[in-house]
Amino acid sequence: MIRALAFVCTLNPSPASSSSQLLADQVLAELGDLGVQCESVRVADHDIRPGVATDMGDGDAWPGLREKLLAADIVLLATPIWLGHPSSLCQRVLERMNADISETDEQGRQLMYGKVGAVAVVGNEDGAHKVSADLFQGLNDLGVSLAPNAVTYWVGEAQHGTDYQDLDERPKNVAATTRTLAVNAVHLVRLLRQYSYPPSS
């Protein structure tokens, strides 16, 4: 069984509508069609403390989410663009993941080795490539692998007020890109299960 975990990094807690949630759900639907067991976590619904430790104590929600992360094969970060950057909650997820950057398995490999990363970005103007590049670098630093075309995104015209969730239908290019992301991510998970990375020590 392949497992996927989506961290939806909208600033809006549930039950507010969210374009990031919508695009993440569309990615998970494609993965589900490929037999992947999927779970979505809206980060704003959880008390994830700032810091770079695995447990910040006093009701910190990250330890439980970290268990889900460690059990996942595919990790999706879904974020809006704010001031040209991923949301602050997306950055916080990466910072909390960073607590494990020096942790290794019995063969000296980072704990995230064998996991496949993916990114979903929404915004009202250009910036999806910049945001995905930032997230790709963070995921790579943590030992997560990236398949080709590991991002799907939608951005509206500059200074336009339409949100992704307000569109009458999903654009064909977004649908195709989302499908490609899912297919390539699952393919890479299967390859890494068959041919794992060599020992690092």
UniProtKB/TrEMBL annotation:
It comes from the Bacteria. One of its GO terms (molecular function) is oxidoreductase activity. Residues 11-149 form the NADPH-dependent FMN reductase-like domain. Transmembrane segments: none annotated. SUPFAM superfamilies: Flavoproteins. Pfam families: FMN_red. This is Flavodoxin. It comes from Streptomyces paromomycinus.
